[in-house]
Structure formats: C-alpha cells, structure tokens
Amino acid sequence: MRPLTVQNVAEYLGVHPDTIYTMVKQKQIPHFRVRRRILFSTEAINDWIKKQESQYELEVI
User: Fold this and answer.
1) Could you tell me which residues are beta bridge partners of residue 39?
2) Which residues form the Helix-turn-helix domain (predicted)?
3) 16-52 pLDDT, tens per residue?
4) How confident is the model at residue 61, as a pLDDT?
5) What is the C-alpha end-to-end distance of the chain, expressed in Å?
6) Which of helix, strand or coil describes residue 33?
C-alpha cells in the first residue's frame, strides 16, 4: 500500500496541512520520514483515529 502524504492526511481528516505539520512536530500523529519527506501509513492513521475516538468516548462518560 502506498504511503500517504501530508496533503493526503489533511484532506482525509478535513484539516489544513499546517495542522498536520504542527501535529507531526509535536509527535501527536503517527508518521515516518524518508529523508525530508513526512509520510503516513494508512493503517497507522486509521488506528490513530480509532484511538482518538475511544479516548473521546472515555472523557465524555
């Protein structure tokens, strides 16, 4: 499976690419680098979303 770019993840999550760069810098979202490129695994992003959802549900309860 082909890795996602910052632009791909921003579109997928419905946020601005600058938000993704900030999250990467603060290590808030799973990513990896190939030289200077920031890339994301589709599986890791989907798992991260599920984790965020479950944390939100725990906070609401």
Assistant:
1) 32
2) 4-52
3) 999 999 999 999 999 999 999 999 999 999 999 999 9
4) 58
5) 37
6) strand
Angle subtended by helix axes 6-13 and 42-60, to nearest 10: 40
Distance between CA atoms of residues 13 and 46, nearest Å? 10
Query: How many residues are present in the chain?
Result: 61
Complete DSSP assignment for the chain: -PPBPHHHHHHHHTS-HHHHHHHHHTT-S--EEETTEEEB-HHHHHHHHHHHHHHHHHHH-
**Which token pair is 28?**
């808030």
Both structure tokens of 45: 């992003």
AA letter at 44 = A
Is-contact 15 51, C-beta < 8 A? no
Give the whole-angstrom CA distance, residue 5 versus residue 3: 7
Give residue for tokens 């808030």: 28
- Residue 8 CA to residue 53 CA, distance in Å, equals 20
